[in-house]
Amino acid sequence: MACNLAHGAHAVAASMESPIEVTKKMASEASVEDLLSADGYLFCAPENLATVSGEMAEFFHRCYYHVFESHGDSSRLLGRPC
């Protein structure tokens, strides 16, 4: 699933004549620093009963508050494509 997503991203970027670099990481290996250093995001995960996998949910929970400004009301990820 992740390979197909990366392939599709490369195909779209090529059609727009815009270079793209896709870095694949498992949710358990991805960090807040990875989120903050990226220009955009492609997330893929199997769903079970209309929710993402436990590993992906844990990633979102682990990183959520850390991507907000110190005053806590503005995400440092705003404006990045997802």
Distinctive features:
82 residues, mainly alpha, two-stranded antiparallel ribbon, 3 helices, globular
What would you say this structure looks like, in words?
- The model has no long low-confidence stretch (mean pLDDT 90).
- The protein has helices at residues 2-15, 32-37, 54-63, and strands at 47-48, 51-52.
- It has one domain (21-82).
- Strand 1 (47-48) and strand 2 form a beta hairpin.
- It is mainly alpha-helical and 82 residues long.
- The chain is globular, with a radius of gyration of 14 Å.
- It has 3 helices and 2 strands, in the order ααββα.
What is this structure, in a nutshell?
The chain is mainly alpha-helical and 82 residues long. It has three helices and two strands.
Helix/strand structural class: mainly alpha
Gross geometry: globular
The average pLDDT score comes to 90
Q: What share of the residues lie within helices? A: 25-40%
Distance between the first and last residues' Cα: 17 Å
User: How does the major sheet shape up?
Assistant: 2 strands, antiparallel
With strands numbered from the N-terminus, the spatial order across the biggest sheet is 1-2
Radius of gyration: 14 Å
- How many structural domains can be distinguished in the coordinates? 1
Contiguous uncertain segments of 5+ residues: none
Could you spell the SSE succession in H and E letters?
A: HHEEH
Give the strand tally: 2
Strand content: under 5%
Count of DSSP H/I helices: 3
